[in-house]
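Archive entry. Fields below.
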Amino acid sequence: MLKKNSLFIVCMLLLGTIQVQAAEPDSWQSERGRFIVSYESQLDPITINQMHSWTLHITAADGSAVPDAELAIAGGMPEHNHGLATAPDFEPLGDGDYLLQGLRFHMMGYWELELTVSANGVKDTVIIPLEL
Amino acid sequence: MIQIPGFSFQTGYSRKILMAGLVVLVASASWLFLMFRTPGTWTESEKVLISSLWIENLPPPVTNPGNAVATDPLAAELGHNLFFDKRLSATGEFSCASCHQPEENFTDGLDKARATGQSQRNTPSIVGLVYSPWLYWDGRRDSLWSQSLSPMEDPQEQAGDRMHIVRLVTQDEYYGPIYERLFGQVPDFSDRSRFPEHAAPAINPALDSAWQGMSTADQELVNQAFANIGKAIGAYESLLVPAASRFDDYAEAVLTDNGENPKDIFSNDEIKGLRLYLDKARCMECHNGPLFTNFEFHNTGILSYPGDLPDRGRIDGVREVRKQPFNCLGKYSDASPDQCQELTYARDGAELIGAFKTPSLRNLEGTAPYMHKGQIATLEETIIHYNDAPLAMIGHNEAENPLGLLPFERRQLEAFLKTLASPVAVDERWLQPPQ
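PREDICTED_STRUCTURE:
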């Protein structure tokens, strides 16, 4: 009993020095579940103060590509109460892919990108979290 | 017998184990304390931040796509001469170097610049600006070359006019041949019926009237030569990047095995100041990267200059840069449209009201007074401003949360900031008027 408890204390102390990091998802579902969005950044890893683009891939809930969506982007740093440093735009590439151009993040920390997808009479928003 | 809920300790053997546990606990706590509290002991994540500020991680200078001669040594020679040439002003009294004085880290020590008249803003340093997508406190120009043209015609600064300047430079016996080698044959500006003595758009009625009397094709010839003059000055200014500071020596000692002891480079106060810089003082939010700036626009609640209305800053600057003819997308730029991403994707919005460009903190001790109108005289008062986080007069103060720095912490932060002093990384001859 005693040995077990001592061992437990030592293990806890050791564990305290180890950082456990959860794997990040690679796609995000919209708030009402209508779309799923994944992206590939031109910069990997994403660094601050560098203009770059992302390729977005958008599918419907059934997994089929959404090639003709209207997209709008907003976002910023919730903790700092400010928006994006740039006004990015989109270029459709076909097969549910879209080039998101003109992204530049000017601070380290937690960002959220809010992507509004309108397609086939449905409008839904997906929040993409980003830790820089 | 010792009773603790969940534990049942017996005397003798069990006491030894208890003691061993306590020893482990105390040793671990001490290790953690030393890890986080001893000056100069940095965690891996802190080292990443220090490395991000180290000048060694400054990328090679961005070649400005709008300026085809930005890295041409001959253009830099011409630009060096033009930078110090007072003949480019209306009265022959003022050159670029009158306000951007090399011995003052390319500033003038004044709250607001004074030349032909009184300017509305503080003279910023030029050092490192080759990396900035935006020029001026409000970013109303998007390259060194296009920025350099504005003071030449600003009635408060050099107060010249482009027609006169273009003729003077292209017909000068020293400048003319260099200009031709860089930019091709000089147009013939000698016909006064086509090219008046003085002309420039929208400066004053006389100059504007002379300018409007010229054909569009002739205006474009003059504009192109004027842009070329700016590109030569831009090539010179591109050379002006900071050398390593004492902070960079410290960073190198911390991050590499170069044999130097970091504690021989920084005092305890400077180390503690760096720790505050990275964390509690929140400086890194905007003053990040090897030049200690993100070159972005922020409203930080800087009060108006006494007697002035609050300055609208970037919200006006972004509108101006889009419409001015010497921007990256304009016909005098050497860039293709897809190389003008900063201008193409520049944002608008209420956040830009009263927002100004984050300045570099390198060499800041030598560039007082601070802020866009020189409203704050000393570094100490600047830190107090961010510590207090006052409400903005217009717009919204992004740095709205008081920092809670204690008086000794403010002194430590200031001590660290002073370690960013360094010379310009060029031969001394570039910092003197040309012989």
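CURATOR_NOTE: Confidence is low (pLDDT under 50) at residues 10-22 of chain A.
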